[in-house]
Amino acid sequence: MSLVALFYDSVEQGCQIGWPDPARQSILSNTRSPLQRKISNGFNYFEKKGIPTEKPLYPLVGNLWNFWKEVQFQRDAKNEKRFGKVWGSFEGSRPAWNIADPDLIRDICIKEFDHFTDRRVFFMKDKVLSKMLNVLKGHEWKDVRSAVSPVFSSGKIKKMSQLMESCGETLVQHLRKAMEESQGVVNVKEYLLLSLSVSLLPLLCQYGAYTLDVIATCAFGTKLDSLGEENDPFTKNARKFLVDNPIVGNPLIIIPFIFPWVMQLGLNIFPMEPINFFKDLVQDIMKQRKTKGHERGDALDAMMEQVEKEKEAGGEMVMTEEVITAQSLAFFVAGFDTTGSMINFLTYVLAVHPDVQDRLYQEIEEKIQEYGGTNHEMMNACAYLDQVVNETLRFYPIATRLERECTKDCIIDGMEFKKGDLICFPIYAVHHSLEYYPDPEVFDPDRFSPEKKSKIPQGAFLPFGIGPRNCIGMRFALEEGKLALCHLIHSFRILKCAETPVPLKFTPGVLMLMPDRTSPIRVKLESRI
Ligand code: HEM
């Protein structure tokens, strides 16, 4: 198929997902007109609505070219300065709204949620993966979300916190070893450059190992020390799933953005061998627990509890074995690297802001004394810890943008959204806006003090998203991150050294906030105990 024909197809795809009729007619009625004319017609979508537009440079790719060239959040910040709080761009041929206004973000994600229930996903052929919460759509998503929500209740998080505790201790042991081997300078989260790849992926190292151990114990009911037991089948398969995946980080991943229909050919983003390993593992553990009635207080227990409740209530079952397995995998996909990155950035800010570290150390030591160790209640009592974590997530939001798909036509604030429109919220630009955060480039945990926090508009702090489709694992991630930090601060003084990059540089071509391969986060650790 020629490139021109592919472009026509992708224009049609754009039309089906919600281009307005006049644009559609002018494009389709002139299918034999010169390519340039089609491009200018197709890319007029926002201009016709009076919305400023980031003009696409090339046919087919729209503004995706800029995605590869520039760091996403820097491009968003530049566009916000240039266009204001609402502007249009094109993901391939598909129109994408960019909205950096907290009131509008709140309206779309909460008030008018019924019109924006989904986010963009590429068709997933596998019958288990397609049931992961993050990719489900419409009613199916709603049913699974309400069935899975109790897994993350405060009571359940408290139980899982006890399981995480031993992973925190293992993390300290490994960091101590790494510190002794390298005269104190530790690359807390290493990066690996894949051949053919312009993006960088985390090795299962230090924080990666910690978050993997936590997922193994809380989502898969398996005790693990992934750095100590590199040949363990769980560690090996996790590595294949998350690190040695030939597709992630590969520039060819851009193809489904331009031609979403290619995924219907049966391509899967994830390699199947490790997926099958994890499916079998979850199913074996569930069988064992059913026969032996063994309980660990982990997420699998909580999901099986939900099954019993559904059985008692009668009616159609939502939590089938397939759905449960899919959620364990979803926790992996959504919770592994995000949480590792959060701990990585936390370590960095403490190294470059020793005054913040000293105050945090005082608080943690006081509360450890008071509560007899690091635990759920002790962490809840640490107000400054919460402020430091919030400010770190404001300064370095791991997911730099959120997405929604318009599922029903609607008009908000005079703007007409059509079914199929893609809506993007540039989190980084909002978090660094002078309007909501005075001196936004200053790291100041006191902006999240109880008095000041309440003045931040609801749609202006979005590290875990917003509304009914926000991050279901937020409390879990915060518990896991704070626990790691308490162990770290209690055991080590974190110091800036010659190898610590200031300021941080970031990687283009990825949606997550990732330090550049040439300047990974390195800090010096000094034992405190
Ligand atoms: C610091 C760590 C994390 C960050 C920054 C983060 C951030 C996010 C964000 C921004 C979203 C999209 C929300 C929206 O569209 O409004 C999301 C969704 C999600 N996250 Fe997290 N996340 C983290 C950790 C976790 C963990 C540990 C888990 C699981 C245990 C998890 C599970 C999920 C799932 C399943 C979704 C999809 C929810 C849905 O579509 O209903 N996340 N996360």
TrEMBL record:
It comes from the Eukaryota. It is found in: Endoplasmic reticulum membrane; Microsome membrane. Keywords: Endoplasmic reticulum, Heme, Iron, Membrane, Metal-binding, Microsome, Monooxygenase, Oxidoreductase. Its main location: endoplasmic reticulum. One of its GO terms (molecular function) is oxidoreductase activity, acting on paired donors, with incorporation or reduction of molecular oxygen. The keyword Oxidoreductase applies. One of its GO terms (cellular component) is endoplasmic reticulum membrane. Belongs to the cytochrome P450 family. This is Cytochrome P450. It comes from Darwinula stevensoni.
